[in-house]
Design goal:
alpha+beta; five-stranded antiparallel beta sheet; 2 helices; 19% helix; elongated
């Protein structure tokens, strides 16, 4: 799958008392971007028999985002194993990267047991082993 891009505006509720985006909200922005990446590939998790859950997240903050900034989040699948996908997500303010996020998501059944990513999901993401 090619990289996916989406934009989000920074709202007052996203900022801390210093007027900058609170660090945990970058993870929320990334979650929304991953959800939209999957949705744009035809994968709606509420309708699937499987779920993708975060197993690991690494966040690097480079520069702060502030109220009313328009951010662009670029998400790309970097690695695939049997049951997991590694995704790199860069958050841009204009042409400047302000945050880098690496996330490992794991495919689980509705009972939250790890399972191999079904081939039909791989096909939608254009991922093959």
């Amino acid at each position: 799958m090619e990289g996916h891009k989406i934009s989000f505006r920074v709202y007052y509720e996203d900022t801390d008392s210093g007027g900058v985006v609170y660090y945990a909200n970058y993870l929320k922005f990334a979650e929304r971007a991953r959800t939209e990446m999957l949705r744009d590939a035809g994968i709606n998790q509420s309708e699937e028999e499987i779920l993708f859950v975060v197993r690991k997240a690494e966040l690097e903050l480079i520069k702060p985002a502030k109220l009313d900034d328009l951010l662009e989040i670029s998400s790309s699948i970097e690695k695939l194993s049997g049951a997991s996908i590694s995704i790199n997500q860069d958050i841009y303010l204009g042409s400047t990267i302000i945050s880098k996020i690496n996330v490992l998501i794991v495919c689980v059944s509705k009972g939250f047991k790890p399972i191999k990513i079904p081939q039909e999901i791989r096909d939608k993401l254009n991922i093959n082993l």
